[in-house]
């Protein structure tokens, strides 16, 4: 009988821990969302992962982001090169630091 009480006590402590940390509320809200979903998803576990934020980006999304990153990196490099060229042209027309005009 004492062993049963010890086990029950551990269970109760664990339940309080989950409640304190907000796990029970979060799981409840995700399960309620699944219950209220008009068209039940084929994979309930994926639905839960998605709503808990555990699911990573979809592979198609990842590939699109990588493509966008590569395009933006290339544009950045082009703009930096253009900036460098424009600065060098500007230096031809700006007065030198000691106050003399460039010819």
UniProtKB/TrEMBL annotation:
Classification via InterPro entries: AMY1
This protein's UniProt keywords: Coiled coil, Nucleus
Keyword Cytoplasm: no
Subcellular location: Nucleus
GO molecular function: transcription coactivator activity
Chain coiled-coil ranges: 62-89
Residues spanning the membrane: none
Keyword Coiled coil part of the UniProt annotation: yes
CC per GO annotation: nucleus
Sequence similarity: Belongs to the AMY1 family.
Protein's recorded name: MYC binding protein
Annotated gene: LOC116326663
